[in-house]
Amino acid sequence: MAVLVTGGAGFLGHHLVKLLLDEGKEVIVFDNLWTGSAKNVRYFEKHPSFTFKHCDIRERLPDVGHIEQIYHLACPASPDRFEESPVEILETCFQGTKNIFDLGVKRGARVLIASTSETYGDPLTSPQSEQYRGNVNCFGPRSCYDEGKRIAESLAYAYHHKHGLQVRIARIFNAYGPQMQLHDGRAVPNFIASAMEGQSIVVYGDGNATRCFQYASDCVEGLHRLMNSDHDSPVNIGSDVEMPIGLIADMVARVVAEKMGQANCVDVTFLPQREDDPTQRQPDIGLAKRVLGWAPKVELEEGLDRTVDWFLAEKGMASGSRRAVGGAITPVRL
Ligand SMILES: O=C(O)[C@H]1O[C@H](OP(=O)(O)OP(=O)(O)OC[C@H]2O[C@@H](n3ccc(=O)[nH]c3=O)[C@H](O)[C@@H]2O)[C@H](O)[C@@H](O)[C@@H]1O
């Protein structure tokens, strides 16, 4: 079976491509390497079932033969990019998604889109179930992504009803893991980068904003199960273990210091909260458990351990033996 992955050179794309190749699929990747990496592509280039097409999904798409499924992941996902390239992100979410849906109709392929917890905006209720309609600011620094992903979901609904396209919608909550860019801008790689470089970790706000981080392999397993399920309404894919960001910063500082054999952790600096940054986020994953038989397996401690090992290896800084670490850890209230 041939499967197309848009954004397959990105962080989640990499893990998904690996899973699909491992199960014997023919995989074609579309990526313009905007936020994805050539290194992620090189990793697979010798695989006989892998094809890479360097292209921008906002433009005319390259020809592909028979494909049965499309995982549509292509879009920058770091809030830093939202501020740099809002127009391009909106174009990707609307025109890019529309081009992919047209391809899905032409080829009779099922399309799964990577939507997001950001469709709930700064939620007024917690945990967020798929029925919650969200609290999104349509005129702010995050709106290109939040509204972009909401229009992508609307397009999925429209194509399903007008053209009979088979759609699957995954609302992904805060994924992290190996293959992220060190300077991606999201919390986990930022915290690891600062700790590895011996710099203070920057936390926006008072450290009490919460997130639930899910490890990459859990996330792509959820996407894969959703694609192969009968469920055509949105499904939350995330961990439901909620933690304050300040505590995650402390955990990262400690893991990096232990692995680098340092006696003290880097400290944490608090800067003002960013505009429209959600203060509380936790998915209700009851639906994913029921209809997909899926729940995340990798605990945060284990996932951070593996992720830090990967970043250290990438930088040629082999992980040292772990030792107890002292130093100032900023206490955080939940
Ligand atoms: O995965 C999701 O559910 C969505 O949320 C993410 O947005 P956000 O939750 O803000 O992700 P991060 O940038 O990792 O930030 C998490 C929290 O850490 C804080 N943060 C981030 C980076 C940093 O250096 N310091 C810091 O305190 C942020 O202000 C925020 O409160 C991104 O928008 C998307 O990748 C994704 O669709």
UniProtKB/TrEMBL annotation:
A GO biological process of this protein is: D-xylose metabolic process
Cofactor names from the entry are: NAD(+)
Look at the named UniProt entry and state the broad enzyme category this protein falls under: lyase
What is the similarity comment for this entry? Belongs to the NAD(P)-dependent epimerase/dehydratase family. UDP-glucuronic acid decarboxylase subfamily.
Q: In which pathway does it act?
A: Nucleotide-sugar biosynthesis; UDP-alpha-D-xylose biosynthesis; UDP-alpha-D-xylose from UDP-alpha-D-glucuronate: step 1/1
| GO terms, molecular function | NAD+ binding; UDP-glucuronate decarboxylase activity
One of the Pfam families matching this protein, by short name = GDP_Man_Dehyd
What topology does the record note for this protein and the membrane? Answer: Single-pass type II membrane protein
Does the keyword field hold Zinc? Answer: no
Q: In which domain of life is the source organism classified?
A: Eukaryota
Q: Which organism is it from?
A: Emericellopsis atlantica
Q: What's the protein name?
A: UDP-glucuronic acid decarboxylase 1
Q: What EC number(s) has UniProt assigned to this enzyme?
A: 4.1.1.35
What chemistry does it catalyse, as a reaction equation?
UDP-alpha-D-glucuronate + H(+) = UDP-alpha-D-xylose + CO2
GO cellular component terms?
Answer: Golgi cisterna membrane
Among Gene3D superfamilies, the record links this protein to: NAD(P)-binding Rossmann-like Domain
